[in-house]
Amino acid sequence: MTTHQTSLNASFVSLVGAGPGDPDLLTVKGYRVIQSADVVVFDRLVSKEILALAKPDAEMIYVGKKVDYHCVPQDQINQILVEQAQLGRKVVRLKGGDSFIFGRGGEELETLAEHGIRFEVVPGITAAAGATAYAGIPLTHRDHAQSVQFITGHVQKGGGEIEWASLAQSNNTLVFYMGLKQSGRITDKLITHGLDENTPCAIIENGTRKEQRVFQGPLNTLPAMAADAESPALIVVGSVTQLHNKLKWF
Ligand code: SAH
């Protein structure tokens, strides 16, 4: 493999996306980088099979978070990365899905950049791509959707309001991350802004994992579906979700 580390004391961090759940969805590059890490700083949604790829003597640091409950505050995670890199260790920062999609990867890299620590980014398959693929739901389809948007259901740090009117278009697929608890609000906002209450929807729980479950129903039943679903789950809104019936394979 190629490595960017030139000497033992060269600070270096690889920011690696582990994919959505099925360990086989890790990239070949991610696989190699994890195998050569001295320390792996990882989140809750990373599969144990992927963690097991690390060297037996690699230090494993868990900094997992849940929505509404941050085990380790973000500042402290940033600090751990800086400290470990400055020790001259080869650090892998391992996150679920892709680090740049609702993963705070950008924030962590900004801290590293401020400390002059070099880094690389190894992309991962984000939940929206992985879970819909395993559910047989194409995110776009010429007969159904010409665009797709990824939205966080979690209330944001800056408090910025979502542009609901631009989301509520019938030829658009919407994928909400962290949306289960907000499903009532999402449903109300979309209907208020003109989306038909019968628009087909799906919830994909534990996408790409053996336990994967797919719930389907019209938009006006979304809160009821969400009440039966467990985290991690994605809410998918749009007529592409009907294709699950024809294309489900997993
Ligand atoms: N960076 C990650 C997303 C982190 S936010 C990525 O790119 O996928 C966490 C949210 O991702 C969860 O609340 C859920 O909405 C979604 N998610 C992650 N893994 C998932 C899975 N296996 N199935 C369904 N949703 C998942």
TrEMBL record:
Pathway: Cofactor biosynthesis; adenosylcobalamin biosynthesis; precorrin-2 from uroporphyrinogen III: step 1/1; Porphyrin-containing compound metabolism; siroheme biosynthesis; precorrin-2 from uroporphyrinogen III: step 1/1. One of its GO terms (molecular function) is oxidoreductase activity. SUPFAM superfamilies: Tetrapyrrole methylase (SSF53790). PROSITE patterns: SUMT_1 (PS00839), SUMT_2 (PS00840). This is uroporphyrinogen-III C-methyltransferase. The gene is cysG_3. Belongs to the precorrin methyltransferase family. Gene3D superfamilies: Cobalt-precorrin-4 Transmethylase, Domain 1, Methyltransferase, Cobalt-precorrin-4 Transmethylase, Domain 2. One of its GO terms (biological process) is siroheme biosynthetic process. Pfam families: TP_methylase (PF00590). The keyword Lyase applies. It comes from the Bacteria. Keywords: Cobalamin biosynthesis, Lyase, Methyltransferase, Multifunctional enzyme, Oxidoreductase, Porphyrin biosynthesis, S-adenosyl-L-methionine, Transferase. Its EC number is 2.1.1.107.
